[in-house]
């Protein structure tokens, strides 16, 4: 972005240079002939043909305008690309969130089933501290009494 700005600034400064008169030159000339020897210093200035400075200034102005609009186009393209990238990322995140919400119910159902709860039973909100104080054998007995799948697996192991 900064590079584009400085390119445009240089083209604006070119307008001033093109519209200005050329610098004066000091020329020294000697005219030597048989009879007269003379040194004639003079100051010389080149005057451009009428309309030449205006035409050069117009060309520089048009070039500056073209660079300005090219820089605007580049900025708009980069802004538009960034906006499109942001919209695409937003849509991807919305889709991912929708998928997670859809899959949540199946995970909750599987979790309830592993705890031995029915589909209409509310899921447990927290683990009670009483469960943490129980021994491993008591915990296994409690799990077998509440979960029919575990009870069936225990029966298969014992058989």
Tally of distinct domains: 2
**Count of discrete alpha- or pi-helical segments spanning 4 or more residues:** 5
Q: Major sheet, described briefly?
A: 2 strands, antiparallel
Unreliable stretches (pLDDT < 50, length at least 5) are none
Please indicate the percent range of residues in DSSP E strands (runs of 2 or more): 5-15%
Mean pLDDT: 75
Classify the helix fraction into a percent range.
55-70%
Number of distinct beta strands: 2
Series of secondary-structure elements, N-terminal to C-terminal = HEEHHHH
Q: In order across it, which strands form the biggest sheet?
A: 1-2
What shape does the CA trace take? Answer: rod-shaped
Structural class of the secondary elements?
Answer: mainly alpha
Calculate Rg over CA atoms. 45 Å
For the record, give the distance between the C-alpha atoms at the N and C termini, rounded to a whole number: 78 Å
Task: Please give a structural write-up.
The chain is mainly alpha-helical and 159 residues long. Helix content is 69%, strand content 10%. It folds into two domains: 1-24 and 41-102, no CATH class; 129-159, no CATH class. It contains five helices and two strands. Helix 1 (2-19) runs antiparallel to helix 2 and helix 4 (136-146) packs across helix 5. The model has no long low-confidence stretch (mean pLDDT 75).
């Amino acid at each position: 972005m900064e590079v584009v700005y400085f390119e445009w600034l240089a083209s604006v400064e070119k307008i001033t240079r093109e519209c200005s008169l050329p610098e004066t030159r000091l020329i020294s000339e000697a005219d030597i002939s048989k009879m007269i020897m003379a040194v004639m210093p003079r100051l010389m200035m080149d005057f451009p043909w009428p309309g030449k400075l205006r035409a050069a200034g117009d060309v520089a102005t048009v070039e500056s305008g073209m660079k300005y609009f090219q820089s605007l186009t580049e900025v708009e393209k980069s802004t538009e690309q960034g906006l499109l990238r942001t919209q695409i990322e937003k849509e991807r995140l919305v889709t991912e969130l929708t998928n997670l919400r859809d899959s949540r119910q199946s995970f909750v159902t599987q979790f309830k089933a592993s705890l031995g709860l029915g589909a209409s039973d509310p899921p447990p909100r927290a683990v009670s501290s009483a469960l943490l104080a129980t021994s491993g054998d008591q915990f296994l007995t409690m799990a077998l009494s509440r979960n029919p799948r575990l009870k069936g697996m225990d029966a298969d192991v014992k058989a």
